[in-house]
Amino acid sequence: MAKQRAYDGKKTLTLDFGTLTPKQKEFMKAQTFFVCYGGARGGGKSHVARVKAAGMCFRYPGIRILMVRCHYPELEENIIRPLQRMLPEEVYRYNGTSRIMTFDNGSVIKFGHWDGDSAENEYQGVEYDVVFVDEATQLSERAFRYLTTVIRGVNDFPKRFYLTCNPGGIGHRWVKRLFIDRQYINDPDDPERNEDPKDYTFIPATVDDNPYLLEANPMYVKQLANMPEDLRRAHRYGDWDALGGNYFKGFGDQHLFRPFKIPEHWPRYRSFDYGLDMFAMGWETVDQDGRSWVYRYYEKPDLVVEEASAQAKAHTLPGEKIQATYAPPDMWARLKDTGKTMAELFMIYGLPIIRSDNSRVQGHMVMKDMMQPIPLNDPYVKSLFPAGQAPEKLPGLMIFDNLDRLISDIRDIQADEKNPNDCAKQPHDVTHSVDMLRYYCVSRTLAAEEQRAKQAEFDEMYKTKQDYTEWMCGNVPTDDYMSY
């Protein structure tokens, strides 16, 4: 039995949280910094997270705990209300406005949700000893990394990050990498980014590990068995290879390349997505094969038009000739207060822009098409490979491998549940860079002209020793010309 003794100031209470399964007990005892539980439906994930959080509050008076889920209604239904039913009213107080549960011994549980970029402002500067994330695969890796930063303090309380999850969702890739595949960063040039395998524990659990659920609801297994094959493998058996997790399933390491010096004759472009929540700009160039390369990326929130224009110019190198800057169509909507458009304001601040197409489905399909391999003939690109090792084909859309945020967002963004041909619009924090790239991809671009092509034309003219009159006018007029 999971029991806990609590003191309400008058008497000692014995709290009975029910009987835990062996896998749930393993979760309760784990002591690594990151502890992940689940991987399939029915393993009792949310219940054991509630028991662990309440138990830590009673055991460590004054501890501060944050419990997060992607959407608040699900947080209230799966975490807050069951926790209130589980605890006697005399040991805690709950403030529904601030969503804080305060225990009589000074311990606190803050219930929060993650709604994208604005959530970073909500959690900036806060300090907790322990963080719980229920259904972690619903959060992006950026959100996960940010939440780890709130775990700090100089007290003696344990510092832990607990996660529960199922396969699928925007966080599928990073959860699978850390807890299933156990592939960790090991960068000798930047050791602060390195990940220690000893910090990560994964406790797999399926419905078969939860006899109490099977006894209470024997039809649950059949319900899981009737799901589509990929979902059945993932949610019934915890198969992390059954679901790919993103919209651009073909995007991978073959689309990444180490940074190199861009040839002068390759045309260069810019594109951006703009809102006060985020200004996301990319720099693109096109080789002689018509292959696009994204070679620079910048993003920053809370920029007004003047600041966004200044940053775009500041991150464009001196002498870097930009053929065009593509922007979303809503930049041409007139502002109510001034009657001007955003496009006019960008022009005023020195950043002329060209209107891109806003068809989401068409744009994303163009992006997928550009990711397909095309013949590699550009001599400069071939020279970037070891002698004799240049491939016959290379994707039509390439990205410099140091653009981590752009690469991560492309890998993480999901298909829309209502329209599989489109990308999901939530969570919003991974859409900015993808939209930026979409505006570029649907706009007309030209392949780089073969280097010295024009010079060769003049050289040929020089060989024939044509003078100016002959070259410009076809030589002197003849009788045929005069009588035409």
If you had to describe this structure to a student in words, what would you say it looks like?
It is a single chain. This protein has 484 residues and is α/β, with parallel strands linked by helices. The chain folds into three domains: 3-237, Rossmann fold; 253-441, Nucleotidyltransferase, domain 5 (2-Layer Sandwich), CATH 3.30.420; 454-482, no CATH class. It is built from 18 helices and 19 strands. The protein has helices at residues 22-29, 45-59, 72-86, 117-123, 141-148, 172-180, 211-216, 220-225, 229-237, 305-314, 342-348, 360-370, 379-383, 404-412, 432-441, 453-463, 468-473, 479-482; strands spanning 3-7, 12-16, 34-38, 64-69, 92-95, 100-103, 108-113, 130-133, 160-165, 200-204, 256-257, 268-275, 278-286, 292-300, 322-327, 354-355, 373-375, 393-395, 397-400. The strands form four sheets. The protein has an eight-stranded mixed β-sheet, with helices on both faces. It has a seven-stranded mixed β-sheet with strand order 11-19-14-13-12-15-16. A two-stranded antiparallel sheet has the order 1-2. α2 crosses α3 (72-86) and α12 packs across α15 (432-441). The longest helix is centred in the first third of the chain and has 15 residues, at 45-59.
Compile the SSE list and pairings:
Blueprint: E1 3-7, E2 12-16, H1 22-29, E3 34-38, H2 45-59, E4 64-69, H3 72-86, E5 92-95, E6 100-103, E7 108-113, H4 117-123, E8 130-133, H5 141-148, E9 160-165, H6 172-180, E10 200-204, H7 211-216, H8 220-225, H9 229-237, E11 256-257, E12 268-275, E13 278-286, E14 292-300, H10 305-314, E15 322-327, H11 342-348, E16 354-355, H12 360-370, E17 373-375, H13 379-383, E18 393-395, E19 397-400, H14 404-412, H15 432-441, H16 453-463, H17 468-473, H18 479-482
